[in-house]
Amino acid sequence: MRPALSILFFTVVSGMGYGLWFLLGAGLALAPVRLGREPALLALTVGAAFAAAGLVASTLHLGQPRRAWRAFSQWRSSWLSREGIAASASFVPAAALGMLLWRGADAGALRAGGLALAVLAAATVTCTAKIYTSLKTIPAWRDALVLPGYLLLGLLGGSSAGWLIGALAHDAGDRPLPGLVATLALAAALLKRAYWRRLDRAPPAATAESATGLGRFGTVRAVEAPHTEENYLTREMGFALARKHAARLRRIALFLIGAVPAALGIAAALWPVPAAPSAGVVASAVIAGSFVERWLFFAEAKHVVMLFYGER
Amino acid sequence: MTSLPPPSARKLGLVIDLDTCVGCHACAVACKQWNDGGQFGPLPDEDAWGERPQGVWFNRVHTYEVTSAAPALTVHFPRSCLHCETPDCVTVCPTGASYKRAEDGIVLVDEDKCIGCQLCAWACPYGAREFSTTRGVMQKCTLCVDRIYNESFDESDRQPACVMACPTRARHFGDLGDPESAVSKLVAERGGHDLMPELGYRPVNKYLPPRPRRAGGTASAPPPAEEKVDFSTAAPILRWLDRLLSR
Asked: CA-CA distance, A264 to A252, in Å (whole number)?
């Protein structure tokens, strides 16, 4: 599958924003008084900026972006529609929390707002992953580890951003964020490794024989394509550029989303490491690593329609 | 509404005979011509006369070689929308642009509602949907819905353009929901099959397999034996020509 830059940007950056919102919401719901007012407002704003930037980028992928509002209508059947609704609805508790934090509301209101934000943020990333896992045509995306992968990477991005915000606001001393970042990084790296191993061993969803129905006569080999040039299908579904470097890109992704945040997170949790630089390096590494991971998620995924074009 | 309607009794679709298809692409060209008719036709090409022309076709003809113990079989294979009974291209659509008609099962795109997110193309295993970069919307086979119900046409012309164009009558149009229809009988008689049945989209269109080879078809003809001509008794001029030409 062709890794469209608009979709990569949307899933990575929005995922990070909703991850940050989830952590902030959960933090407010569990312990509203422990979070400082300024860091909480800052996290809320950064989360909003990331979520919005990703959503704007996602509309660039559309052929008719001015009709994007129509995507709210088919929530009964479409995960993309549900994602649009959850992504937009998250801004309601976020805006309410902004008002509450600004005016200094009581703990009960903050708890309720935080809970709503956490639930909707988690729902948004779940819907994003479900768009991919619901496609029977792309076996690599049907895998059971895709949904936890999206959730973990969103949380990892969000917690790295949260750590950086806390460090910049000099509010990180008693926060458990470095430890959380390290734990999530290790979990994400293990999960992605397991996913790639399964991917390499997964049986194909279909074959050229079943696609043409000619299997009973023997082995099917494409000798002539319908067109000499590329067409929409071969460009969109037949993207094979990154597969050549897949092994190296996987190692790069694991280093950036696993090793770097885990090492710095553990170091910061145990020793008095300068917080802001460490958090800055971790946040940059996690963003870069998430982009590599998402690129591979698309580029390595094979679509069954390419069986008609001779892909085995 | 992108939720699927209850299964319709009428299931309009195509039956494609892989035995008689000669791979001439007439169906693909006729389809393109019918659907692109006029300046505001729905199938405009990008860079049509330039370096890298590209555009949407609803019909694409592949050619396959099938090898086994017997000599290889060459099969020409037209591929188009199969108007599935459980099409994911419809249910994934976020806007309601993609829909399956309750009355006859034809799967269509309302181009005024389509936002061009292309998720339906990802969801289709048969490559039936192509994105028009010039119009910014998804396009697909309509089963010539503007022909088959067109009362200004002669009854015999109320068929999809691809069916009308096929010179070997390898394409048949009809109601596959009616077991008594000509197409249903053809499918039953020839053992028509589905494409990628394991994915569970339940295509309406059926493909008829190549017929079994006639007896002796498996043995290839012996190579022609070298002719022996005795020139020793021939006329001198012929002997001389033979020597000349044998050098």
From this structure: 17
